[in-house]
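Quick illustration, no need to memorize.
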Amino acid sequence: MFWEITHSQFSDIPSTRQCDTEEFAIYLVALKRMLNFNVPHVKNSTGEPVWKVLIYDRFGQDIISPLLSVKELRDMGITLHLLLHSDRDPIPDVPAVYFVMPTEENIDRMCQDLRNQLYESYYLNFISAISRSKLEDIANAALAANAVPQVAKVFDQYLNFITLEDDMFVLCNQNKELVSYRAINRPDITDTEMETVMDTIVDSLFCFFVTLGAVPIIRCSRGTAAEMVAVKLDKKLRENLRDARNSLFTGDTLGAGQFSFQRPLLVLVDRNIDLATPLHHTWTYQALVHDVLDFHLNRVNLEESSGLENTPAGARPKRKNKKSYDLTPVDKFWQKHKGSPFPEVAESVQQELESYRAQEDEVKRLKSIMGLEGEDEGAISMLSDNTAKLTSAVSSLPELLEKKRLIDLHTNVATAVLEHIKARKLDVYFEYEEKIMSKTTLDKSLLDIISDPDAGTPEDKMRLFLIYYISTQQAPSEADLEQYKKALTDAGCDLNPLQYIKQWKAFAKMASAPASYGNTTTKPLGLFSRVMNTGSQFVMEGVKNLVLKQQNLPVTRILDNLMEMKSNPETDDFRYFDPKMLRGNDSSVPRNKNPFQEAIVFVVGGGNYIEYQNLIDYIKGKPGKHILYGCSELFNATQFVKQLSQLGQK
């Protein structure tokens, strides 16, 4: 073999604590380093970055797009970024950085590129580890094309996961149905298919910990898909650690300053421990955007109508424009308010707008003063006084324009969310579901809401009923259930999800009590009359101003028990794995007795922003502690109901 596969060693990566909060910590540094030919800094003789092209597949595109904007790519010298399987012209004097999965199809296309001599040199980066046989295929193609010297580096990057926030990641976006809740819970799934699903999840989790540079202590519930993942991940980590010379966790990379001296805790939970939360209507900004809008890989797509147009048949709405907005950590308003209740967000947008207008008026006032003419001493004196102010105002102009862009962005997004809240009475659903989940007395009958033609879509009604069915310890009688089913059918609901939940509940036999959601609930502050002034787009009339009360969801409670080493029936039976122990142990008794400072919660079967936000709110009250939230896929309630419906048809 004339090439050595290298794993990018990130010994110079700063810890998360030292990183700029606008950066995605270690994952972003790993990606930037890869784009820089896998060395810290490469510049040409003029101090400019070396110009190059980036070739990725759909997997690579999904990993890069939430982390780096087109402008940031350009700043790093990337003039073109193209899909591997698109038609590409030769650019013989430019190096190419490839970032792809090591699939048969991708390898064939890369070999074709070598034969066609498309680029000056080739830096081949594989998202997951490439097998020796596939590497030999590339080597043979390079030999045949006389292009061996042009293949500069071959790297296993171990970046097979998507970072959405600096404390949140998902496994995949392409082919996510392969690791979906439905795939794992299909009644007709074969053992071989299940092995494939588990191996896919474990490969990504292994990549995550290699990039993090830490070997976790693993805890998981018994008899679930999470346990299957834990067993396989423990084995994979153990095998890698056994070969000390080739281990990915030795030397400077271990921890890379990312963690304190104590190793992190990985808590693997199964989606089935809490099916109500993914169905729940929500009240915080980020979760609402994901629930009601097209929000995907940190980008929200909106349809905006551009008024009326005159046609021979009379006036009609113009064709809708599609607009996309990136909601990333660089957006300070988003960072500050993504976990806030929606009415607070609407109020904050209005305040930002008023502050911007005041600054804009000041610039206009100064401009008019600077235009004063004549010998009036007062005018000249005023002119000199305001020169410094105007200079300052002009220098802050880029900042002012960026502020205006963010205000426009959040005005459009929040307006679109508000339209859904009003049209579907989402505040009523949210409050009612909170009462069901916290076992509070209901002020209105469930049948009334299901039967109300003005309250929500058929899907909203189905979600509400499923939460009721999951959360009640005593299932409704057959007669009552038939009455509910008739009302749901009359409302246009698909009953397949209920069919699945009935089977799931019977199968689980409620060996433990249903997931408890605490007994606190939201507190209404009465109705908004006008939260904003009349000129605002956010007239919240008729929308309840609900104040959120902190309560730990089941996933957060499990994390709290395990992180703080609390004894609790909910988690006492969780299995314990330490891949660094010489022999594998099948023990529920943790060897480590000290509370953990760092933890990763990973939900096998899919996660959501409600759970993520609940964990973030929980950790805010724990100074010095840090958590990451991960899931096999990130779905909203619509996507989850669809999967339940498909399972219910089986």
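Residues 342-370 form the longest helix (29 residues).
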